[in-house]
Amino acid sequence: MPRTRRPVVPGWFDQDAADFRLLGTQCRDCGAVFFPREDAFCRNPACGGSALDEVPLSRRGTVWSYTDGRYRPPAPYVSDPDTAWQPYTLVAVELAAERMVVLGQAAPGVTVADLAVGAEVELVPGVLNEDAEHVWTTWRWRPVEAS
Ligand SMILES: [Zn+2]
């Protein structure tokens, strides 16, 4: 039976979009942008707005910070204790237009040796985990090759 592709968090991105972006929301009154998305009310304390529109966020940004995970986190982190632990790389990225910092894992194969604070990265679709019924999709950050 084929597995179903599902976003790990519904509404945070469109896993099938040709122009893959994280989805935030923007206040109609003051223009503040939120990610994770805020759909109930504007969190700007100087604004009483409650109308927020979904907006695609910048696809590129710069590395604000980064690190790697070299040990197996405890549950509820999902991993197979019978397999060797594979380190993963976490990147905090300041989005180009929004100037907000979004955390995410680096694309497969990208290590801390490939990253530097201030380096340009781009958002790419990725897979967080797979089980018998689902492929859980997510976003990843990948260094932009110097042209
Ligand atoms: Zn507002």
UniProtKB/TrEMBL annotation:
Pfam families with a match to the protein in the record: zf-ChsH2 (PF12172)
Signal peptide feature range: none
Stretches assigned to the ChsH2 rubredoxin-like zinc ribbon domain: 16-53
Name this protein carries in UniProt: ChsH2 rubredoxin-like zinc ribbon domain-containing protein
PANTHER family according to UniProt: BLR3430 PROTEIN
InterPro entries (alphabetical): ChsH2_Znr, NA-bd_OB-fold, Thioester_dehydratase-like
